Amino acid sequence: xxxxxxxxxxxxxxxxxxxxxxxxxxxxxxxxxxxxxxxxxxxxxxxxxxxxxxxxxxxxxxxxxxxxxxxxxxxxxxxxxxxxxxxxxxxxxxxxxxxxxxxxxxxxxxxxxxxxxxxxxxxxxxxxxxxxxxxxxxxxxxxxxxxxxxxxxxxxxxxxxxxxxxxxxxxxxxxxxxxxxxxxxxxxxxxxxxxxxxxxxxxxxxxxxxxxxxxxxxxxxxxxxxxxxxxxxxxxxxxxxxxxxxxxxxxxxxxxxxxxxxxxxxxxxxxxxxxxxxxxxxxxxxxxxxxx
Length: 292
Description:
This protein has 9 helices and 11 strands. It has helices at residues 17-30, 47-50, 100-117, 137-153, 162-172, 197-201, 216-221, 236-243, 263-271, and strands at residues 3-8, 33-37, 63-67, 71-73, 89-91, 132-135, 179-181, 188-189, 208-210, 253-257, 276-280. α3 packs across α5 and α8 crosses α9. It is globular. Mean pLDDT is 85; it is low at 194-200 and 285-292.
């Protein structure tokens, strides 16, 4: 079984050194080749749509994991290749990012492209994030041919998240290929949230982080992708609490009022794995946006 991790790095400046290193380590662990595209595959095509042409260059592979360059793969991440059968396609839903403005943008784009394709719009839960596509060149060439045809018909526009919404509509309206929806942790979208784990303690809480938005290099620099501990260090003041709870905490129930990012709870539950802990918070701090 030949596998590849592929990414676009057109111009040679799109990928952070830490991202490249994490890709290389993942490729070695998962038994995959790492394939980088530094030049446009199709001339005169917006980089959004270049993704639709990658499959043509990778016909020799049984499975391809196509990633955006602004991602980090955790050193211990399990292989998504093992979760998606070769005849299936693997995606992560974009619905994880629930900020109202982005929900409306996704729904508007999906509706627009559904109308253009004369197809039914899927629910937002089935809206694909284009940062991760897992597919088989042998089995899925036809759906990519349709995607490229859509791009040509609309002059490869960069408006209305075109390749993402188009693929979403195509996948939702086809029955030829099974689809595996991977857990959110395989594409933690927009790792710039105020409440993102790396903001406080740098450790990754997911398999793959996706750094959309501004200041990507700075934010990628903050993250320990190769840190062996996913969870935060045990809080010193929680040691006293843990010592008062016998065993692993089984049979005990607790509550924390005022949780914020959950750091205290996470560190306590690392030691007392049987503890049943209720967390209570309004999920915003004074003066902050409440759309977490």
